[in-house]
């Protein structure tokens, strides 16, 4: 008989066996990112979560969020480091959920690759699972898709979706914000996962910096600084809601501090934030100086050192700051809520950064 030279999925570039090996490698890590409500394990067509756990709520509201990591994945690819990008993915999703006061319950992920390298896919999932543990939620499933011809062999992207729950009468948002409330800023761990198109353009294309360049201001290489994982605030924020009164949160992502805080400020009020209350990390100044980027452009692109904001009544400030400090999170009073003038924006940043 003649040798079969017909087309197959493998000759088209999809390696099913490699995908199966990746699943086996990731099972250990997914097993660690669980909660008591999870039913079954990895390998089913759908992840299962026991909704009877919601019976303790009077009126449970389900919250849903989805996000990706953006072009930060290009830095991970260039560095050959794949086990941190998952922390970024989880942070981007669960910290959107917690803004309304929701406890993250579970996540699913989607990993798209040009070619399945089992160890690489398993490393990505390891990071996602570790992030879920830090967020207190379960990783109940996901999908790895191989797209030969659309992505290069080394190219990949990640996305995820999460579900949380909040009691209806504890839902946080603009309707709770009051005149006299205080704006508490929580420090970011660095760039997080926004603005990397600008960062890459400035540092790689314009400045010509290499990822292994030692940067004294960073105390490490450029690549290590750029891959610093997004801080996951969900458990910190939930701790605040348990220990004191909170009127709102704002997750500082694309659009920067002012634009994201504005999303939780009601039309008749105005938030002021004093830049002099903190010093942005060195990476923000480096991007600005090397790229000749104006401050306002930086501020609407990068988080400038603030990754999450809590808006609390004056009487909650001391407890809030103590709670966050006890959890190892740097936080400070950055501003307040006042009546909005006729032509005022929702949020105004004043003063100059400290240092």
From TrEMBL:
Gene Ontology terms: cellular component: cytosol
Subcellular location(s) per record: Cytoplasm
Protein origin, superkingdom: Bacteria
InterPro entries, alphabetized: PurM-like_C_dom (IPR010918), PurM-like_C_sf (IPR036676), PurM-like_N (IPR016188), PurM-like_N_sf (IPR036921), PurM_cligase (IPR004733)
Reaction it catalyzes: 2-formamido-N(1)-(5-O-phospho-beta-D-ribosyl)acetamidine + ATP = 5-amino-1-(5-phospho-beta-D-ribosyl)imidazole + ADP + phosphate + H(+)
Entry GO MF terms: ATP binding; phosphoribosylamine-glycine ligase activity; phosphoribosylformylglycinamidine cyclo-ligase activity
Pathway terms, separated by semicolons: Purine metabolism; IMP biosynthesis via de novo pathway; 5-amino-1-(5-phospho-D-ribosyl)imidazole from N(2)-formyl-N(1)-(5-phospho-D-ribosyl)glycinamide: step 2/2
Entry keyword Ligase: yes
Sequence ranges assigned to domain PurM-like C-terminal in this UniProt record: 178-344
Enzyme Commission numbers on file: 6.3.3.1
Record keywords: ATP-binding, Cytoplasm, Ligase, Nucleotide-binding, Purine biosynthesis
Sequence ranges assigned to domain PurM-like N-terminal in this UniProt record: 58-166
GO biological process, one term: adenine biosynthetic process
UniProt entry tagged with the keyword Metal-binding: no
CDD domains for the chain: PurM
Pfam families: AIRS (PF00586), AIRS_C (PF02769)
Major subcellular site: cytoplasm
Family recorded in the similarity comment: Belongs to the AIR synthase family.
PANTHER family (UniProt xref): TRIFUNCTIONAL PURINE BIOSYNTHETIC PROTEIN ADENOSINE-3, TRIFUNCTIONAL PURINE BIOSYNTHETIC PROTEIN ADENOSINE-3-RELATED
Name of the molecule in the record: Phosphoribosylformylglycinamidine cyclo-ligase
Taxonomic placement: Bacteria, Bacillati, Actinomycetota, Actinomycetes, Kitasatosporales
Gene name for this UniProt entry: purM
């Amino acid at each position: 008989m003649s040798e079969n030279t017909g087309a197959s999925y493998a000759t088209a570039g999809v390696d099913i066996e490699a995908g199966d090996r990746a699943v086996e490698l990731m099972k250990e890590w997914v097993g660690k990112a669980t909660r008591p409500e999870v039913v079954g394990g990895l390998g089913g067509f759908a992840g299962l979560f026991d909704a009877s756990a919601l019976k303790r709520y009077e009126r449970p509201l389900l919250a849903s969020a989805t996000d990706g990591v953006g072009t930060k994945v290009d830095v991970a690819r260039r560095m050959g480091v794949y086990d941190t990008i998952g922390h970024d993915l989880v942070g981007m999703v669960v910290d959107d959920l917690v803004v309304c006061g929701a406890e993250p319950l579970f996540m699913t992920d989607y990993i798209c690759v040009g070619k399945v390298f089992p160890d690489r896919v398993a490393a990505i999932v390891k990071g996602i699972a570790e992030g879920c543990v830090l967020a207190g939620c379960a990783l109940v499933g996901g999908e790895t898709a191989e797209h030969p011809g659309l992505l290069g062999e080394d190219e990949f992207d990640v996305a995820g979706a999460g579900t949380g729950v909040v009691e209806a009468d504890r839902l946080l948002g603009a309707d709770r914000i009051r005149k006299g409330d205080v704006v508490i800023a929580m420090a970011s761990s660095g760039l997080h996962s926004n603005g990397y198109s600008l960062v890459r353009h400035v540092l790689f294309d314009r400045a010509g910096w290499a990822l292994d360049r030692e940067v004294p201001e960073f105390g490490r290489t450029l690549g290590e600084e750029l891959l610093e994982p997004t801080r996951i605030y969900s458990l910190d924020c939930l701790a605040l809601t348990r220990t004191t009164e909170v009127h709102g949160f704002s997750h500082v992502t694309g659009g920067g501090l002012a634009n994201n805080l504005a999303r939780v400020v009601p039309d008749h009020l105005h938030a002021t934030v004093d830049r002099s209350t903190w010093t942005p990390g060195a990476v923000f100044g480096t991007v600005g100086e090397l790229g000749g980027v104006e401050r306002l452009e930086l501020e609407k692109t990068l988080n400038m050192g603030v990754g999450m904001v809590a808006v609390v009544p004056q009487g909650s400030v001391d407890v809030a700051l103590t709670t966050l400090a006890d959890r190892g999170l740097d936080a400070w009073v950055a501003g307040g809520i006042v009546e909005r003038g006729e032509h005022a924006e929702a949020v105004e940043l004043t003063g100059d950064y400290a240092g």
